[in-house]
């Protein structure tokens, strides 16, 4: 455990293990010592505080989740707290404290034995996913980066939408860029520059359904001929 993690452990959160790492920083599984020792996920974010200010992805994620947190929707990951760990003239290190979920959809699918996920389970997971998306859209939130790595699955099979770094809270007059979703989870019409937001979402959901019922992608990269 690094010095910053140890410093954090001496306060409210006791780090148990590192569970992820990316360009933004690291993610730790930890115990919340002030709330009965419940497990949480600590997302450590390095924020550049230069002339450009904080990265939009960090601001968006915090703003969106704070906006949604009061509703405590069962299919959206909860943000419990935002802590400032340290700050210099050029960099602020934040810790976003989320509810802890053991696995994402990719990990869940990799654990399922043959012949795959039962049809009733697929229906239930798709229903939960649609319910979560409907909740977001009813509060004018567009996720914009739906993929299995951003869909968490609890041990009881509950679906949680996560990672709102590319999300937007939109107005009806606001034009959103549709070219955001990761390559393999884009709707087919995207490749012909004819995609709308609802078509993009339907395309993503179709890929999820196919991924649950049989491993693989709809598209094979080496065979894609797109002008």
Automatic annotation (TrEMBL):
InterPro entries: CDK (IPR050108), Kinase-like_dom_sf (IPR011009), Prot_kinase_dom (IPR000719), Protein_kinase_ATP_BS (IPR017441), Ser/Thr_kinase_AS (IPR008271)
Membrane-crossing segments per the record: none
Gene Ontology biological process: G1/S transition of mitotic cell cycle; regulation of G2/M transition of mitotic cell cycle; regulation of gene expression; signal transduction
Catalytic activity field: L-threonyl-[protein] + ATP = O-phospho-L-threonyl-[protein] + ADP + H(+); L-seryl-[protein] + ATP = O-phospho-L-seryl-[protein] + ADP + H(+)
Domain of life: Eukaryota
Gene Ontology molecular function: any one: cyclin binding
Domain Protein kinase: 13-227
Protein name per Swiss-Prot or TrEMBL: cyclin-dependent kinase
Organism: Phrynocephalus forsythii
